[in-house]
Design brief:
Length: 155
């Protein structure tokens, strides 16, 4: 029989601390690669479609230009510093966000907020938010849950 107390919580979960989660956001290389593959697949789809050959070949530069524009826009976004405080407030580069919401989809995390009438969002992919920081973000958000968008399911 042991006399010492266990050093970890038996449920496997640690208690959330009042420390804020300090995260860095940067453009995801996985997202940029996926956008490149989608652009190439769209070009192939034009060639394999039932469009007349000349029209399909004329559409490829348009698809490539649009895909390149999207890739460059995603890659050129500046990095951001995000702080999720234990009070539920979220700071982006030192300024307080209005109505922040965290959305979890497996290892992908989306932070969305409103500025006036516009909705903005940052998306962390697994290559930009490692598992320990994802856990830190979950613990910080669990202290005071951030409001979630209502489910869009018909009654």
């Amino acid at each position: 029989m042991r006399n010492s107390t266990p050093s970890s919580n038996p449920s496997g979960r640690s208690r959330p601390t009042s420390e804020p989660a300090r995260l860095h956001w940067r453009p995801s290389r996985l997202l940029i690669a996926a956008l490149g593959l989608i652009t190439l697949a769209a070009c192939g789809a034009l060639l394999l479609s039932e469009l007349p050959g000349l029209l399909a070949w004329l559409g490829i530069p348009c698809v490539l230009a649009s895909g390149l524009h999207t890739i460059l826009r995603a890659a050129r976004q500046p990095p951001h510093r995000v702080v999720v405080q234990a009070t539920g407030q979220v700071l982006l580069d030192g300024r307080l966000l209005e109505a922040p919401c965290l959305h979890w989809r497996g290892p992908i995390v989306r932070l969305s907020w409103r500025e006036g009438r516009r909705t903005h969002r940052l998306l962390w992919w697994p290559d930009t938010l490692p598992a320990p920081q994802r856990r830190e973000l979950r613990l910080a958000a669990a202290m005071r849950p951030l409001p979630r968008a209502p489910e869009s399911v018909a009654p």
